[in-house]
Amino acid sequence: MNNIRLPASYQIIVVSCLLFALVMVFGVLWPKYTDLSFLQKTIKGKKAELAEEEQYFAKLSQTEEDLSQYKANLAKIDSALPNDPSLASLFNFLQQVSSQTGLVLKGISPPLVDTSETSSLKEIHLNLQLTGSYSSFKSFVASLEKSARLVEIENISFTSPKEGDVFTFNLRIQVFGY
Fold first, then answer.
1. What backbone phi and psi angles, to 5 degrees, belong to 173?
2. What distance in Å separates the CA atoms of residue 65 and residue 57, rounded to the nearest whole number?
């Protein structure tokens, strides 16, 4: 075998090229490779997050479809516990129920609204004065019990009729909202 020896200037050039290649690999290409690796990991993580969010939204869509089967029941709950238990709609409700059952709503005391911080329910306390027959009063109470609104009768008092069968009924009721 023949040993070929390169001139010293060629050796310097070859060594310089090797050093330049090493500097390029470790100085320029290695940081770019680590950046690429980091970005690939980030993309993988974002894809996993996206898949989880897609599953979450698919589950929400399924839940919405399931709840749509119960729209009538949910509407009853919303009417039983209205978001804004406005007094005007409550007074209108009481007036309609009393007139439908044959009673005359003589008066409603100023409402007392109780919004305690321990519960999300609002409680409205009212005193009602009604006149009519006893059978009409029974129908009125039955209508309140059957209504979708949450109405609780706290107290009932009445006076005996002076003439005929017309009673005066005083009720203290509690109505709930949230």
1. -120, 160
2. 12
pLDDT digits (tens, 9 = 90+) for 118-130: 566 778 888 999 9
- Provide the residue ranges of all domains of the chain, joining segments of one domain with +: 1-69, 79-177
* CATH placement of domain 79-177: 3.30.70.60
CA 172/CA 108 separation, integer angstroms: 10
Say if residue 12 is exposed, middle or buried (CB neighbours under 10 Å; 0-12, 13-18, 19+).
exposed
**Those residues with Cβ within 8 angstroms of residue 137's Cβ, 6 or more apart along the chain or in another chain:** 101, 103, 130, 158, 167, 169
What is the average pLDDT across 55-65?
Answer: 92
Identity (one letter) of the amino acid at 159?
Answer: T
Distance of CA 61 to the CA centre of its chain: 15
Average pLDDT, rounded, for the chain: 82
What is the pLDDT, as a whole number, of residue 83?
Answer: 55
Neighbours of 149 (CB within 10 A): 19
Stretch 153-158: mean pLDDT, rounded? 89
